[in-house]
Structure formats: structure tokens, C-alpha cells
Amino acid sequence: MAVASLTPRVRTIVICDDVFVSPTEDGVFTLEGVRQHLEAVSFPWRASLNLFLLLSSPRKGAYAGKILVVDEQSDKAIRYVKFLATFRSGIVSFLKPASTALRSIFPRVTGARP
Fold first, then answer.
1. Who has greater pLDDT, 109 or 23?
2. Can you tell me the distance from the alpha carbon of 24 to that of 111, in angstroms, rounded to the nearest whole number?
3. Most-buried pick from 48, 79, 86, 110 (CB within 10 A)?
4. How many domains does the chain fold into?
């Protein structure tokens, strides 16, 4: 027998320039400048990005989450953001979008593209 997860699951992660909520339709978002990769001309590099998460949960309740961007070389946090996802639906699985700004300064290159 399948058992429902105790905490929400991340279904989608999108890094983009901006997230707009539709003023006319519930649950509709416009994501602008969706990124597949990032390139910087020089470092340190200041970036104003947004992270859009689509979370799902079969259970009602409020769940605390965090987003942590880490410099792999120094193991230090570049950006730390807390958020709260509240699920109120009684249906089998409920999707909850969450968006947060990731305004950060990236100090150096942390990975080379092939």
C-alpha cells in the first residue's frame, strides 16, 4: 500500500528574471527570462533573480521551507531565504506555487561548463 509523504515535494524549480501573478485568474503566473544557465562577464557578479517553486502535498497544513544558495568552494552561504507553504485543500494532491527573490552577489566561478 502506498503511503503519502509527510512533507511537501518540490515538483518544479525555475530560475527566472521575474514572476508575475495574473490579476484576473487564480493560479496563473507569468515567468519572464527563464534561465537554463547563467554566465557572468566578471566577478563578483550581482544578480537579481527569482526562484519559482511548484510544491505538492497530499496533506493540509503549513510547512516551513528554506532556500540556500552556497558557494561550493568556500562552503559559505551566499543567500538564505525562509518561506512558508500553506496547503488548505482536502483533495488528494494540492499544488502550491512559491516565489522568492534571489538577489545575490556571486563571488567567483563555481563550476565550468564543458
1. 23
2. 41
3. 79
4. 1
